[in-house]
From TrEMBL:
Molecular-function annotations in GO: methyltransferase activity
BP GO annotations: methylation
Organism encoding this protein: Streptomyces ambofaciens
InterPro entries given in the database record: SAM-dependent_MTases_sf
Gene3D superfamilies assigned to the protein according to its UniProt record, in alphabetical order: Vaccinia Virus protein VP39
Alphabetic keyword roster: Methyltransferase, Transferase
Protein name stated in the entry: Methyltransferase type 11
Length: 255
């Protein structure tokens, strides 16, 4: 769903050979794979979804006959399960690009979590390195907003802890300021969410973790039911689900 965001950032930064990229919360590795295809040396870190680390490694390091090309690819791509400090390599040059593509501005407390990640990460980057932060755009520009409100409503018994909340205009800038980074440009990108049907949309949205607090406060069956009902206005005549959204990105620099 966020491929347009990755492409926009890579184009703006003219990413290519010579770039040493550290991807925070790399998930299944798609953003890393796209960067590697442009010639970048990539390292991914994932702590929230360890089950996706294997998929990221399969994408970046597919089984292939040994030889110089296979060894070179292995040297140019790594996926680490753990914290940013686990990706540190004292023998390697500093990272020139850090990406945090998992959008903030939708979960209560997610800005603080990203700030903690950056506190560990900034020392691994060189001076003037680009740090890319991503977030949800204005709620009125995101069709998925009405669906995500289900998470807040159902998680209310937990006082909204870990549940969805509307994105704020300066979410990204505030995180960058607290991390001691210097803003160096921003942009907005259209990232529509498309699914083959309501069932696949429910599975896809649940996989984001945005509904975990709602499930804990109620139960899986109720969340599935209310999420399905909220998706019906976005279902087209052919059964597919389509929700236009806008995401923001901020490029900041280490000092």
């Amino acid at each position: 769903m966020l491929v347009p965001l990755y492409e926009a950032v890579y184009e703006r930064l003219d990413l290519g050979g010579g770039t040493r990229m550290l991807g925070l919360g790399c998930g299944s590795g798609l953003a890393l794979l796209m960067a590697a295809s442009r010639g970048a040396s990539v390292t991914g870190v994932e702590s929230r979804f360890p089950e996706r680390v294997d998929l990221a490694r399969q994408r970046l390091l597919p089984e292939a006959p040994g030889g110089r090309d296979a060894r070179a690819r292995a040297d140019a791509a790594r996926v680490v399960e753990g914290a940013p400090r686990d990706a540190a390599d004292p023998s390697a040059p500093a990272f020139t690009l850090v990406t945090a593509f998992e959008p903030i501005g939708c979960l209560a407390g997610d800005s603080e979590g990203l700030g903690e990640l950056l506190a560990q990460t900034v020392p691994l980057a060189g001076r003037g390195a680009a740090v890319v932060l991503a977030g949800w755009g204005p709620p009125e520009r995101c069709a998925t907003t009405s669906v995500l409100r289900v998470a807040t409503k159902l998680a209310d018994p937990l006082r909204g802890a870990g549940s969805w909340r509307p994105a704020l205009r300066d979410d990204l800038e505030e995180v960058a300021q607290r991390a001691g980074l210097r803003p160096d440009g921003s942009g907005r990108v259209a990232c529509p969410f498309g699914y083959g049907g309501v069932d696949s949309a429910v599975r896809g949205l649940l996989s984001t973790g945005l509904f975990d607090a709602a499930i804990a406060a109620t139960d899986q069956e109720q969340v599935d039911k209310e999420l399905s009902e909220a998706l019906h206005p976005h279902q087209r005549s052919d059964g597919t689900v389509w929700m236009p959204n806008v995401f923001r990105y901020l490029i900041a620099r280490t000092i």
